[in-house]
Every structure is written in structure tokens, then in C-alpha cells.
Amino acid sequence: MELKIHEKHIDVVVSELKTDPDKGLTQAEADARLLQYGTNELDKPPRISLLMLLLIQLNTVIMYLMMGAVFASALIRATGPDGGNPLNYVDAIAIFIIVMINATIAAVTENNANDALEALSSLQSPITTVIRGGEEVQVDSVNLVPGDVVKLGTGDVVPADLRMVKASDLRVNEMLLTGEPEDVAKNTKVKKAVPGVPEKLTADNMAFSSCNVKAGTGVGIIVATGMQTRVGSIAALLNSSGDDDEVAVAQSAADIEAGVPPPAPKKKKAKSCMPDTKSGQSPLQVNLEKLAVTIGYFAIAICLIVFIVGIALDTRDPEEPETPSWLFMILVAVTLTVAAIPEGLPLAITLGLAFAMRKMMADQNLVRRLEACETMGSATQLNADKTGTLTQNRMTVTNAFLGGVQYDAMPPLDVSDAYAAVLAESMAVNSDANLGRNENGTVDHIGSKTECALLQLCEDLRTSGEGRLAASDHRYAYVDLREAAVNQVVQRYFFTSARKRMSTAIAGAGGGGVRLHCKGASEIVVKLCTKMMKTDGSVAPLTPADLEAAEAAIKSMAMQGLRTLCIAYVDLANTAPGELKEDEAPEENLTLLGVVGIKDPIRPETAEAVALLRGAGVTVRMVTGDNALTAEAIAWEAGILVDGDDGLVLEGPVFRKMSQSEKESVAVRIRVLARSSPTDKLTLCNLQKSLGEVVAVTGDGTNDAPALKEADVGFALGIAGTEIAKEACDIVILDDNIKSMAKAVLWGRNVFQSIRKFLQFQLVVNVVAVSLNFISACAGISELPLAAVPLLWVNMIMDSMGALALATEPPPPDLMQRKPFGRAAPLVNKEMWRNICVMSCYQLSVCLVLLFAGKGLLDIPCAYDADGHRDCHYQTLRLNSVIFNAFVFMQVFSEINSRKITEVNVFENLDESPIFCGILVATIAVQAAFIEGVGRSVVGPAIGFMNLTAKEWVVCLVIGVVALPVGFIARHMPLEWFPGKTDSEADVEAQEAARRAVEAAAAEAALEKKDTAASLSSASTTTNHNGSAAAAAAMIVVHATTGDVHVSVPSEGGRPAAKKRWSKVKTMMDAYSAMTSPLTQTLRDSRSMARGRTPSIASSGSLNRDDLGLGLGSTPSEAGGSSS
Fold first, then answer.
1. DSSP at 25
2. Dihedral sign from CA coordinates of 688, 690, 694, 695
3. 400: which strand partners?
4. Which residue in 96, 170, 373, 906 could disulfide with 186, CB within 3.0 to 4.6 Å?
5. 385 catalytic, yes or no?
């Protein structure tokens, strides 16, 4: 079997790539390989063209119905006796134009969002240091080729997949690939594969594209570029659209290391010329699709009834009596279809989403998919990353034990200048990290984030006036300290996993002697100290009491989730710089300066944003690769964990071992999922969706892309996120801030409310129009009161302006205090049905009175033509014009009613909605111009209306104004009289369904446990009869009341092989229990103190106890109690 690239000797790799590790490629060879291999960049998924976006917008049920009406109307008019008259096609042309306007607006809006994302991506153009022809040159990363020799340094981004040739304390963060936040030490060693032992996802002698160099330096040979890199292979899976019948499923590093077999390939769906618009639909899309189908069935039923009634009554066109009755009734049916279909609804939703999209952009949310605006408002679960989203992604010293004094605030303000000067010198010179300044004035951490935290403390000491550090407007304090002549570095001893510390030796003052600065793991370095410098600058022996105080401070800071680091130094007056050994640091008899506690602090706005989301009914959950102790401490500080909550803190390995039923029973209760992999995030997202939750997910890494795609709303981090994550998401958070997500929820809810308001408004229009024309047709009236074009005018022009007015209203103050709408929320709730029914009854009553008695009430006589004959068509046309105008004015004031769904005062905060008021005035002006302008021309009578008299205008205005008190009365009517469900009723039903699902999952898990126990008991009985013990198996159980997760191991026994395996496991567990006892006791004490309890006192002599808090003891009888 051929060896993999990381299993080959470096000389073999050099030979295969035909390169030189010292001189690199020549420029000519590099140019030739660039033509051969192509540029070093990932293939982006094919962008959806503007034309395809347009077709997607047309691919809805409502659009199908409208286009059907277009073709039916045009076809019938073309086959009629007057088919050559252009005015006959006004209906069809108007409907077609309106359809295209709506689709074009939506397509252009989404296309602009894609343009914005591409512009964001194009801002980065990394430069790489490459050795070519024996010289170091700067090359654009896209022009790198296999065989290039690349130099890496702290802060660099690995430009391609490299096989390391040299590595000096090189540490690379591979979280983008593996999901693990810890930096990985790189070396040049070849590790052979061992049969039966799972291989690591990332080899230690390889550096992979897009990963960050956190510390050290290195030289590597490029072995893969572009789509051939590890990141490229993942991108190829995500963007796969080939002809293969099956698509491989990516597997996480954790699963590979655990030996989990890879998932079965997924069958690909049949290819289509258009993107799939049905899968992964948002709750709004699903509800709108249902509404459109319902309306379609309703329109077809009405049309069939009218057609049958018209044929039975032999209703004919009064202007062309020779036209067959069936042909005329088809035209009437088309008019009714136009009345039934809410043509303005797609445009209204598009306008509302586009407006929200612009507002969200101002709040640092780049929306890539319009529907994501509304979906975020329905979100019930938010699975957020810790680093950079909840926290500042900036390690900071927050606590310290300095000179024997505990400080809970930084920097310390009462230390002497002598002490501060030595502390600053140690932090500055014993480090290879750096601080940078961004254009916006923020500080950029380059290199090890832990070391950067110390450099920032050094800067804070200068800012506070401690240590007599030189002031400078353009240089950091540590730079001056490093460049000082007295601080010439003569030897460095880099951090290793064995030493767990780093030391730097500098020449003493005047060239005499050496001072060695040391920092490292607190519990190790503090025991190397024999002296301690006090805060006044004096040095005294380190007494047992001092050592005990330092160890207590270390333990206290560890229980707060802080990473502790001990800082010390030693003056070697009798040692010349040249006498130091290169491989053995003189780290003894150190002088303790102090112990610092470092953490990535939460953002100042995180707690407020989490509280806002909790108040809005959104469960915020932390999904992180960090350890459980740190994650839990951050969760308590951020408000994700609160007293009285039944939230769980789980670790990824425990979660992965659960059965499907157990996972379902805890999926919604988890508040912190620590040590998690990207696969865990995807699994959790799918579980929550299967339980009816609307799920939002944040991600920044390449392996987060599947979860971002699968979630109802995927948030990618704009600063820390990879390009693949941004391509897979729905919304890009430009500032990586959870507060921006809270604003997305706010605007999403406002969009949903706006759509509901418009639906309430629009359905009244359609119910009244359809009912009026239906009654007219059944009554034998040949000229329907609302013709096709006037109906389109109301549905599209008037209603679209109404939609824009309702969509541009600012969110009400109490919007974030309501529960999320969720997946179960009805699009039209009971309160809306109440308003719709009452307003429809009023408007229909008015129109029917005008239809059957309006000629007499308004004194509209029949006109006389030029020959002196009575022309009653004029009378009907004038009456229909009054009905049309009164109908429009009722909608104008119904629009004011629609500002509120349940609230009585519809004028509340109207002064804060200038756009709404302006559109209202414009609507009235446009209607007046339409009636008086078009009504006086030949077009007006041809499409069904004419201009009005002053008296008729007043009548229409009064009829419209009366809609306001009718709306007021409607809001006081009992809800029991009306159909539908309230939001609270739907929420209760959804919660009950979720509760039943969780209980069913818990019951199934308990049944699985019982069956397993029964089978083990049966096996034990059988094998004991045969003189052998039962095989041991571990089970994970979720406590029904507390939700605690326990791992129980049945009593040992079984076949000799099984017994031997369990004996080895038991021995290992005893050793592990003894080794981790202090650590696990610290974990438990931290949890207890975080909840305000007194830490427990463990018996240090007992190894047979539940040290990990998982119910896993050294003996079966003590493993979490009963293992039934």
C-alpha cells in the first residue's frame, strides 16, 4: 500500500516534488507549475445568476396561478371577435407586468447581497514569504505551487498544505479543521501508521491551508494547493454537484479518533436545472405555500360555481351579445381568479424582507438569503460559539497573585516601580508574541494569545504609571523593553509539553552575569521558586506559608475557569552568557514574581444580549471546543446558566456516546456543550429541528459549514469565519458579536409582524372582492362591479404601497418581550380572523348596498346617447366607479386599522412612522389621479370605471372613515366567536407536543437501558452456569429528574476474553482515577462555588469513587448507584 505524504521520509517528498528545501524552486519552474496546477484558491460554488434568481422567484404557487390567469385571459381575448383591439389585452398585460415587477425586485435584492459578500471576500489578499532560487521573496498566496518552500512565522496563515522541513516551537491552531481550540505543536518527525489504531485527522508533521500559526517559526514544502488541500476536499464535498450516484459524508476528527465507522454515503437527488427551493424552507415559506394552495383551491371552486351558474342562466356580454355564454363566463371566471389571488402578497413580503435586510445590514448583519430575515424572528434555539461570539477572542489578565498579594482587578495600582519594572521586563522579553494596531484603533494579537495577554498587561502598567516605563504614542512598552541594551537575549528555552514552561536568558547590566526569566504551568514553576519579590521591590525567602498562599491562589483562579501562569526569574551573577547550555535551562532557585489568571473575557454587551434573548424566549446555548470548566464559568458569567434553570452542561464525548433517544431527551435542555466537534453541532441542530424547534447556529470553521447549511438560519462570523463558512451561511455577522444576532431576532420578528399585518389587510381585500363579484355573477349581473384591472390596481398598486407602509414601521418596544412565533405559529391567528371577519362584513355590506340600491341612493340616472336613446351602460359604469373608489378608501383606512392586531389604539406611535404617513397620503393622491385622470380617457371606461362627481367623492371618503370605528368595535368582540388559534394556544400545543416527544425519547432510552440490563443479566446467569463471568458493557443514562448523565458499568464477568479486557479497563480506570483526583475535585468545587454552595471535601485516600462526576466508579457497585 502506498504511503501517505506524512508517512514518507522528507527526502522522498523532496525527490517526488523535484524541489530543493534550501533553495526552493526557480522562478521559471514556479511559473511552469502554475500553468500545470492552476492557482492556489478554492473553487467557489457556482453563483446563481440573476436570471436563475428571477426564475426561482417565479417558482411559487401564487405565481403559477397569476401566470395561468395571464395566459387564459390573453388566449380568450385573442380568439374573440375583437381580438385585434389592444385594449382587450390590458388585463393580461397588467397581470404579467405586476408578476415580473415582484420577481425582479426579489431577485435583484438577493443578487445585491451576493455582490456584497463577494466584495467582503475580495478584501483579503494574503502575501507569503517563499524561497525561490535561494532568495526570500514575497509572493501572492494565489500564485503558490506544489514544491514551493514556504517560511512560516507567528501570526501567519498557512497558505497551502505543507510538509514541515523545519519547526522551532511551531504551534498551529487547527480549529477550522478539527473544531479543537488548542494549538497543535508541529514537528518534522515521521509517525508510521499502526494497524488497528485510528489515525489522527491532522498529522503533526503537516501544516494545513487556512490554519493560523500561533507561535514559533517553521519552513515547509507545499504538497497541495487549491482544491487539492484538506480544506479544498471539504469544500468539494459541500459544493458537490457532479453526476455520481452517491456522495461521501465528511467525518469529524473526534469520530475518526474514536474509531467510529464512517457514515454510509448519501444517495444524490436527481439533478435539476433549477436550485431546490422546497427543501429547507423557512417557517414563513411553508405557511405561505399552504396559504397559496388553499387560495388556489378556493379560487378554482368559486370559478367553477360561477361558470356553471352563468351557463345555466345563459349570461352573456352586454356589449357583445353574440359572444357564446361559455366564453363570456370564462372571462368572468378569470376576473374572479384575479380577485381571489392576493397578487400583492409576494411583492409585499419581498418589500418587507428587503427593508429589514437593509436595516439588518446597518446592525452588522449581512443577509444573503431574504427569507432568513423572517426566520430569525421565529428562532427558538440559538447554538452559539464561545470564542469571538460570546467572548472577545482576546486573552486578558483579569486576576493575579503578585508579591504575596491577591488582586482581582488589573492592572495593580499599589505596586512599587521597582517591582513593576521587573514584572514588565519578564513579560516583555520572555515572549515572541507581538501586539499590532488596526486601522480602527483596536489592538491586534499576533502570536500566542496567552503571551499577548501578558504584553497587554505590560502596556497597562505603563498607562497606569507603574514601573517608570517610557511613554510613547506610537510604540508599545514591551518593544522598548526588548530593544533596551541591557535586555539582549542570549538564550531561549522554548515551551515543550514535557517542560511546560518557557525561559529566556538576557545579559545582565554592564555585561556581568545573566538574568533568566521563566514562565509556565503554575503548579510546576512555583515549586522551582525559593524566593519571592514583594510588591515593594524587596526580595525575601519563600516561606511555606507563602507557598501555601500561592497554591491557594492558583486553585482559586482555576476554579473560576482562569488559565494560570506563574512568572519568576533568577539572577545568575557568576554565569557568563556564553556558559549557558543550549538544551538545559538553569531553572532553579527562582524568585517568584507572581501568578496571573488569564481568560478570554466575555464581551461587555454579551450578558445584556443573552438576557434580551432569554426574555424573548430564545434559548441561548454555548457549543465550544473548550474544556467544560472554562465553558461553564463563561456560561454563568454570560447568563446562559442561571439559578433555577434545568440546563445541562455536557461534554462532546459523552454526548456522542448517547443513544438517539437519550440525545433527543437532552437536546433542548443542554446549555453548554463543551469539547464538542463540528459533527456534534450538526447532530444537535438536527435533533432540535426534529423536535419542532426553529434553530439558529453560529460557526466560523470549515467543518461548521454542514451545520450552517442544515440550520434554519446559519450565522457565519465575518471576521474569524472562513470563506467556506460564509458561503454556507444565511447571514454573515460582520462584527462577530452576539448583540448583532439579538438585533437580527428583533428585525426578524418585526418582519413577521409586518407580514401578518399585511395579510390581515390583504385578505379583507380578497374576501370582499371575491364575495362581491361572486354574488353579482350569481345574481345575473353581467358587468361585475370590480373588473380585472381595477382589482389589480387595488391588489398591486394600493396594496403594495400599503405593504411598504406597514413594513417600514419601526419595531414596537415590547417586541423582544414576547415569545418567539416558532414553527407552530399560525400565519393567520384568531385575533387576525376576528379583524378580517368583522371588516369584511362591513365592507361587503357597504358594497352590496351600493350595488343593489346605489343608483337610487346616489341619484345616478341613465344617460342619453346622440340619438336620444337611454344609455344605461353609463349608469352601471358610474355606479361601478363609486363602488371601486369606495372600496379603495375603505382599504386606506383599513390600513390604519392593520397597524395593530390586538391593541385598541391604532394611532399609537403614529408620529414615529413618517414613512407610513407619507405613503398613506401618497396612496390617496395616486387614487385620485387614477380616477380623475384615467377615468376621463378612453382607457377608463374600457377597463371598468370613470371619473366621479364631488358628492360621490365625499360619499366614498365617509364610507372609508367609518372603517376606523368598525375596527375599534371588532377588537372588543370575544375571540370565542371566531375561527383559528391564538399564538398562545398554538404555543401550548407545540410545547405539549415537544414535551411528549421528549418524554417518549426518555421512555425509549429507559426501555433500551432495561432491555440491555435484562440481556446482561441473562448472559450473566448463563455464563455463571458455565463457570464464566458476564461480559461488561458501559451504558449512559439520563436521570429523569435532574437530567444528570451517568455512565454505569455492570458487574464484570463473562467469557475469559471479555473478563481479561474488563480487568485491563478496571486497572486503567483505577490509575486514571488516582491521577485525576485533584483535578476532578477542583472541577466539582468550581461548579459548587459557581452555584453559591460550599465545596465538598473529598477523601484523598479513596480511589473507588465517582471522580469524574459521571457515575463511573472504580467498582460496579459504586458506579453511580444502581445500574439497573
1. B
2. positive
3. 407, 596
4. 170
5. yes
Nearest to 352, CA basis, from 113, 115, 109: 109
Q: What is the DSSP letter of 387?
A: I
- Residue 634 to residue 625: CA distance in whole angstroms: 13
Helix H or strand E segment including 64 = helix 61-79
Q: How far apart are CA 572 and CA 592, in angstroms?
A: 15
pTM (global) more than 0.70: no
Between CA 1016 and CA 1022 the distance in angstroms is 10
Question: What number of H helices and E strands is found in the chain?
Answer: 36, 32
pLDDT at position 317 is 64
* Among 382, 385, 361, CA closest to 747: 361
- CA gap 195, 230 in Å, rounded: 23
Concatenated DSSP letters of 1056-1099: HHHHHHHHHHHHHHHHHHHHHHHHHHHHHHHHHHHTTPPPP---
Distance CA 737, CA 161 (A): 31
The secondary structure of residue 199, as a DSSP letter, is P
Residue 78, number of CB atoms within 10 A of its CB:
12
- Burial 25-62, CB ≥16 within 10 A → b, else e: beeebbeebbeebeebebeeeeebeeebbbbbbbebbb
- Report whether pLDDT(1117) > 50: no
Nearest to 697 by CA among 1061, 382, 451, 307: 382
Backbone angles phi, psi at 563, to 5 degrees: -90, 120
- For 674-704, how does the pLDDT look when each residue is reduced to its tens digit (9 = 90+)? 888 878 888 999 999 888 888 999 887 777 7
For residue range 950-981, list pLDDT tens digits in order: 999 999 999 999 999 999 999 999 988 898 88
Q: What is the dihedral of CA 80, 84, 88, 90, to 10 degrees?
A: 140
Report DSSP state, residue 262: P
Decide: helix, strand or coil at residue 352.
helix
The stretches of 269-389 forming alpha helices (DSSP H) are 283-313, 325-340, 344-362, 371-377
C-alpha pair distances (Å), 1084 with each of 521, 674, 805, 1075, 1120: 21, 16, 57, 16, 15
Q: Which entry of 385, 432, 680, 1107 is annotated as an active-site residue?
A: 385
- Indicate the pLDDT class of residue 1082, thresholds 50, 70 and 90: very low
Question: E strand or H helix at 418, and its extent?
Answer: helix 417-429
